[in-house]
Specification:
There is one protein chain. By secondary structure, this protein is α/β, with parallel strands linked by helices. The protein has helices spanning 11-20, 47-62, 96-109, 175-178, 180-195, and strands at 2-6, 26-30, 66-75, 116-127, 130-143, 159-161, 166-167. The protein has a 7-stranded mixed sheet.
């Protein structure tokens, strides 16, 4: 089995990725093995630029085959915001409840409360300084009238997925079948199976 470093400190993402890569010929390891390694700056203007930069940084710092992803929520009525700033939206330490409130305030100001929106996940697989694979997954939906559901994480409670008639936080086990991260990591799993 090839070792694969999942370059995130987000335990929810690690758990989701572990399930999505089940059956791939890799042994997943996490950044917990490098507790003193500082995170790189995420200053790219696209999800792809950030995922590539993180994967290259961690692959070179650890010597491991590394996958990194950058993901977030794009809201059409807010010109694509929060976008690549999704994790940092509203400032450091802002809770998701506070982020939701900021989004609803901005949408009300534009009279666009139920705007079309999408989740985006870009991932990059790197060994050393070589980019081996990259892809993007998306899921289209709308902003829910109010946060609903207790499953999932991040912006899931405000992301309404019309085919299911619920938010992704209410979708339970069905989320992985349609999520942006699910799409991207299933493609990675196919690539890993073809290479290792």
């Amino acid at each position: 089995m090839t070792r694969l470093l999942v370059a995130t400190t987000n335990a929810d993402k690690v758990g989701e990725i572990r399930e999505l890569l089940a059956g791939a010929p890799v042994d997943l390891i996490t950044l917990s093995a490098w507790p003193h390694l500082t995170a790189p700056e995420e200053n790219g203007t696209t999800f792809e630029a950030n995922s590539r930069a993180k994967a290259l940084y961690y692959a070179q710092a650890t010597g491991e085959l590394t996958v990194a992803e950058d993901s977030g929520l794009e809201i059409d009525a807010l010109d694509g915001a929060p976008g690549v700033e999704s994790a940092r939206f509203g400032g450091a330490g802002t809770s998701y409840a506070e982020k939701f409130a900021l989004i609803y305030t901005a949408l009300r100001a534009r009279e666009a409360r139920d705007s079309a929106a999408r989740f985006v996940c870009a991932l990059a697989l790197v060994r050393g300084d070589q980019l081996l694979f990259e892809t993007r997954g998306t899921v289209e939906g709308r902003i829910a009238p109010e946060p609903r559901g207790h499953g999932g994480f991040g912006y899931d409670p405000i992301f309404f997925y019309p085919p299911y008639g619920v938010t992704l936080a209410e979708a339970g086990d069905r989320k992985a079948a349609v999520s942006h991260r699910g799409e991207a990591f299933r493609r990675l799993r196919t690539f890993l199976r073809s290479q290792f």
